[in-house]
């Protein structure tokens, strides 16, 4: 074991290093344990968010046109007693729609 204090990694902000230097060995051990648990939690959350994103990508219909955003949903509109599918999504305050096709009588 070295008799000189360790050098902090450059990634740690100076104010955090100062705060750590003021702590007792017992508090530093608690901080280290908390930091490890927090890092694991954030990594797990990032993995779950990535999995959710991948699942959403898999759930997208294959027939979605390129100019229709991935967040669009399919809605049915009735016009002159005929039913039609439309892609629908929100852009800011506006709701946008794009024609998809007629609803078949079997649906």
From TrEMBL:
Residues 51-106 form the DUF6788 domain. Residues 40-72 are annotated as: Disordered. Residues 40-50, 58-69 have a biased composition (Basic and acidic residues). InterPro entries: DUF6788. This is DUF6788 domain-containing protein. It comes from Halocalculus aciditolerans.
């Amino acid at each position: 074991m070295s008799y000189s204090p360790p050098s902090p990694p450059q990634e740690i902000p100076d104010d955090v290093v100062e705060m750590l230097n003021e702590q007792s060995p017992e508090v530093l051990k608690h901080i280290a344990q908390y930091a490890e648990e927090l890092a694991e939690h954030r990594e797990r959350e990032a993995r779950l968010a990535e999995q959710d994103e991948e699942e959403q990508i898999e759930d997208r219909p294959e027939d979605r046109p390129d100019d229709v955003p991935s967040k669009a949903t399919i809605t049915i509109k009735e016009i002159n007693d005929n039913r039609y599918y439309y892609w629908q999504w929100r852009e800011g305050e506006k709701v946008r729609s794009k024609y998809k096709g007629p609803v078949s009588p079997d649906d």
